[in-house]
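Handout, tutorial session.
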Amino acid sequence: MSGLPKRQRVAAYAVILSGERILLSRLSPTISADELWTLPGGGLDHGEDPRDAVVREVHEETGLDVEIGETARVYSAHLPGVWRDGRRVDAHALRIVYDGWVPVDSPAPRVVEVDGSTVEAAWKPLAQVLDGSVPVAPMVLEALADHRPYRHQRLGTYALIRRAEDGQSAVLLVRISSRGFHTGSWTLPGGGVGHGEAPRSALVREVREECGVECGVGELVAVHDEHFSGTAPSGRFEDFHSVGLVFDATIHDDAEPRLTEEGGTTDAVAWVPVVDVESGALPVLEVVRVALRAAEPRRSRSS
């Protein structure tokens, strides 16, 4: 094999996950006679930055606009005697594999390029890729074995706002939209603390943005943390750790909370009877129950 022409190729690819699915491209019959799926991506043009190349290639092969993480893994494969362009060559493939993600509301993937190396793009169940039900190139399994979700730790601040509604105690809650991980569940109004932002100032801002009202921030009621993996509003698959500061808060008696956020992670605002939270009649995040339990002794002492 030493006399074969040498061919070295540098290519960039992306591991793009969404929930329990992975975005894959099916190789053309000219590349593989049998059905074979691979990561979207491809060869670098001369002088092209690998990050620019993978964005371009993913769009050509899937029609989707991908964002790329800061780091990558490099895989080297020496393939003496393989067929390339109708002849046997001594091939050396260098593959740069990035973590990638596409918006959660992206359309169905489709091949854009004409007469390229791929003929189909699709989201495939991750379990079927791993158990061999979906035939994939070895690179896919290598990349998945090494892949680690992006670790994101976020400090959030939330408001426990209560008042009497129709003779019973109620709590102000917001419902998580389809852009959030816990879609359809209700939680306390609030959100992330910006870099350098005071938690109480962040809470005033978040309540204004989500509910359209100004709030007064009282004492810290509880600290709650949650750890899970899932697809973030950006579309990125994350290993997410949330640490939430829950404050007692008030609004004016005549204030009427309403949904003011458009296209965000909140799609409804409502006063919810506490009994509905306690009975499980309404799907709520655990932070709501934690906050209500922690605040009860304070209310007992003040009454």
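The second record follows below. Compare its token runs with those of the first.
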Amino acid sequence: MKWIDPHIHMVSRTTDDYERMAVAGCAAVTEPAFWAGFDRAHASHFRDYFLQIAECEQKRAALFGIRHFCWLCLNPKEAEDPELGRQVVELIPELLSLPSVLGIGEIGLNKNSKNEVRVLERHIALAADHDQLILVHTPHLEDKLKGTRLIMDALKNEPRIRPGRVIIDHAEEHTVGLILDQGFWAGLTLYPNSKCTPQRAVDIFEMYGPERIWINSAADWGNSDPLAVPRTLGEMKRRGHPEAVIQKLGFENPAAFLGQSGKFTI
């Protein structure tokens, strides 16, 4: 079965991971800009990183027959410096025309601070100015509900943003309903400890149904699994879900959302 991992950080994964994913049926990945494990000091560092995920990773994935796309932003973990945020956001417009760039992401909040909200609002305005898709990072653990509400408020305050072109990721049992009720897409992240297990993700899917939901691994340099998507599809099969429903969650839903960019093709 073909599948898509619409949120994975392949710069932090080995070439062996690409090979394993290809053998397991991966057709495409999309890579949001994220924290490098340390705070970068200058905007020029981000430009080099953006080109790495927009060009170099695309070539590495192609060696295994996997399509690679990306998203650009200043990640929320580095958004406490509003001036750096301004400089990085100003770099992005010239790169939006690159064929692998699908939109702005993963933007959002980390600690729900005022500075993070300011940088988030800059990103939202940028997406609206250039009619870009948005991929959102929600805070972890106890800050998730408050952060999700703050993010949705910021999105709704920009009248040019259409909810159906926004995916709010790292959703969990207590936030999925809020996200879907506002017309946004919800992402279920299959990441040990701080997010969903495959079993929990299938439970949520069974509660809310197949519309406007995708699953992703968000695999990075932490304790994570680049095969989390097919493992979750296997859990659905074990529970007796029809092949058509499994294919919808693992392939058709992400392809439908990402296809709105006009660049996403498989």
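Points raised in discussion: Residues 3-261 form a domain with the TIM Barrel fold (CATH 3.20.20.140).
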